Amino acid sequence: MVREKKFTQDELYRATHKLILEVGYDNFSFMLLSKRLQISRAALYKYYANKDDLILDYLTDQMEQLVMQLKSIEWSSDFKEKLSQLIALIFEYADTHAISYMIPSQKWNNENTNLSHVQKSKELHTTFYSFIQRTIEEGQDKGYLLKTVPSMLIIELIFHSITLPNRTGLNTGERTKHITEILLHGILKNPK
Asked: Looking at residue 147, what is its pLDDT?
């Protein structure tokens, strides 16, 4: 018999984070999560009707933290440094982005679209995306980034770079540094 114990929201979110990265969205279940937390499944069902509700709350919490950081960072007036800061922030939440990519897009786009926590999640994403877009457009306006490359393509490139498998064995900081270098300067030693 699994013992009943108390668990905090933070413990629940950390366990959800680790487990979904290990087993993926499709294999993630309350049964596995309850074993990880050493609680009964019924304890989870007291708070969440299903795994999608839990995962949405977890992702919304992560986005709230990201947006709070976004608003509290002292952004550099030097554009290259500002872009490096932004890429570092995106990479700090790389696991969260990876989890978000695992979830079928229709999960929260159809019947759940009007629920308040889905709306909150969308607002947070819009805040984050708008900041990224303004930063890229600022770089283009100031001549740091090519105006001939659509800003959306630059944003996609940054986000897709965090989803690349890490086969190098580099730690997150080293990997972020190298990818930032490639994004800012390309792979050519002496361009032109």
From this structure: 92
Selected from 1.10.357.10, 3.10.450.50, 3.40.640.10, 3.30.420.40, the CATH number assigned to the domain covering 55-185 reads 1.10.357.10
pLDDT score at 101: 82
Q: Report the topology of domain 1-47.
A: Arc Repressor Mutant, subunit A (1.10.10)
Residue 90: per-residue pLDDT: 92
Residues of the chain with pLDDT under 50: 1-2
Give the three-class secondary structure for 124: helix
Q: Which two tokens stand for residue 167?
A: 């086969």
Q: How many whole angstroms separate alpha carbon 99 and alpha carbon 97?
A: 5
